Amino acid sequence: MVVSLVVLVAIFGAALLAPWIAPYAPQKMSIAERLQPPSAHHWMGTDGFGRDVLTWVIFGARVSLAVGLMVVAVATVLGTAIGLVAGYVRRFDTPLMRLTDALMAFPDILLAIALLAGLGPSLFNVVLALGIVYTPRVARIVRGATLVLRELQFVEASEALGAADARIMLVHLLPNLISPLIVQASFIFAYSILTEAALSFLGAGVPPTTPTWGNMIAGAQQYMQQADWLILAPGLAIVLAVLSLQIVGDGLRDALDPKLRRLM
Amino acid sequence: MTAYIARRFAGMVVVMLLVAMIVFVIARVIPGDPAGVMLGSAATPDDVAALRHQLGLDRSLPTQFAIYLEQIASLDLGNSIFLNRPVLQAMGERAMLTTLLTLMAVGISVGIGVPVGILSAVKRGSVVDQAATAVSMLAASLPSFWVGLTLIEYLAVHAGWFPVAGYGDPGAGLADHLRHLVLPAIALGLPNSALLIRFTRTSMLDVLHEDYIRTARAKGLGARAVVFKHAFRNAMIPVLTVIGLTIATLIGGAIVTETVFGLPGIGNLIVSAVLRRDYPVIQGALLVVSGLYVLINLSVDLLYAAVDPRIRY
């Protein structure tokens, strides 16, 4: 847990400070230096255009983390709204939950790729598509927790005092949902890094000129036999980031509110 | 039980209607006119208008949706723009490969996940348990396409144990086809085994704490008999549900894996359809795959109710 937090802080730090700590400019090409194995000059070697792999891994962290954070934001806001209304306002429960069932019937990557086929590949659209894909997961958890919370006395008390539905949901229920939301956010963060990489790899995600871990692996395919470091570096970056997020998520789940554990 | 089955079927129909609606909305949200895409840039506005009329695109949205549902009901998912054949036929031609791949991947996930999960639960807190937890976390963090490429690099290119890509000659026997699917199935199944390790472990731990297990132990039954005869059967019931869900996840994962290994399956069909904007294929695939998912889910739930007499709805 501590180690993974340190790793996450390091990845976030690298992403934030990318322009200052990256050894080279991301788009600097040098044909003379193409496909060089890792060395003192290029710690992770160079790619088919002679670009520094370490620089791309660092700049790739920016995109992957930015996508992850924005997806978490979109899915959390939409999912919380849907889940709260479904859990608290009875007549909306069935229609909203059937809708989330239907959305969850599509495999993540298929729904994302279909949305992107229409929207076109761009960073913003990737965030939008993945946000839609992960909204139902948040909605389900929020609804489950809301169903438990609404039966508690403090909610009954404010109902008796005549508080409006919106007030009960926002002032009384929402603060109690923070712990499950934080835990879920860390997992969605991890999934969206994986899915974003897969989308980039398929050519349906962020355009290939943008440094992302998925794009790096896609570009490395043709040089696989001569330069295996090209695939190892971004792959390990993905594994490290996702693994750390999952360990932190697990730790948070155990630490925060054990009562709500069963709902997740 | 009959009432339960009926209720579940009704629920399934509602969800499938919503699925069809989502697919319809996605198709309509797509910028650009399907008729324009189908005819290409050389088409005159009159041609486009004629095709729009023929496709029913000039009618109101509810009417279009009704027509769409009617087509689905008569199993007509339209024609692929680029392959010049019905979408269902194109999917059918590729279904065998994707089915085999998915089944092999399920086999690998279950073959790793269930034994490791049981071992982990039986030896709770031991080094074995901690190692299994660590491995499952790591496996869950692996991008399957990256695992695939790494396997190709080391086991196919360098070691030469497996074919690098493709599905073998069309006329080759099943054994040759299966040999081509070994690495893809590992790439697809390995990350997925993580979930099964965790679920099997949790489920076994739950069961091992039950009174009847203590009774069995008190009777003097051997550890093996307690674990396999008494605990295993009950612990597998929830795991069955997860295996069902896994199949659906794997169908999604096949999209990526088939691209990595150049396998001409349904996943490959979907990716090329997305890159070429072949909308009828994308819509058809969405509908068929989600329909499969809903069906698998329903069968698992019904199986669950049949296997466990305690479950009454």
Characterize the structure shown.
The complex is a heterodimer of chains A (264) and B (313). Chain A is mainly α. Chain A has ten helices and no strands. The radius of gyration of chain A is 22 Å and the shape is elongated. With 313 residues, chain B is an all-alpha fold. Chain B has two domains: 2-73, no CATH class; 94-307, MetI-like fold (Orthogonal Bundle), CATH 1.10.3720.10. Chain B is built from twelve helices and no strands. In chain B, helix 7 (144-158) packs across helix 8. Chain B is globular. Chains A and B meet through helix 4, helix 5, helix 8, helix 9 and helix 10 of A and helix 1, helix 6, helix 7, helix 10 and helix 11 of B.
Shape of chain A: elongated
Greatest contact pair? Answer: A-B, 45 and 50 residues
Tell me, what is the CATH class of the largest domain in chain B?
A: Mainly Alpha
Instruction: Tell me the Rg of chain A in angstroms.
Output: 22 Å
- Nearest-integer average pLDDT of chain A: 81
State the end-to-end CA separation of chain B.
8 Å
Total DSSP E strands of chain B: 0
Estimated radius of gyration of chain B: 24 Å
Number of spatially distinct domains of chain B: 2
> What is the percent of helical residues of chain A?
over 70%
CATH homologous superfamily annotation of the largest domain in chain B: MetI-like
Strand content of chain A: under 5%
Q: Oligomer, anyone?
A: heterodimer
- Terminal-residue CA separation of chain A: 19 Å
Number of helices of chain A: 10
Any descriptors?
heterodimer, A: 264 residues, mainly alpha, 72% helix, B: 313 residues, MetI-like fold, 2 domains, globular
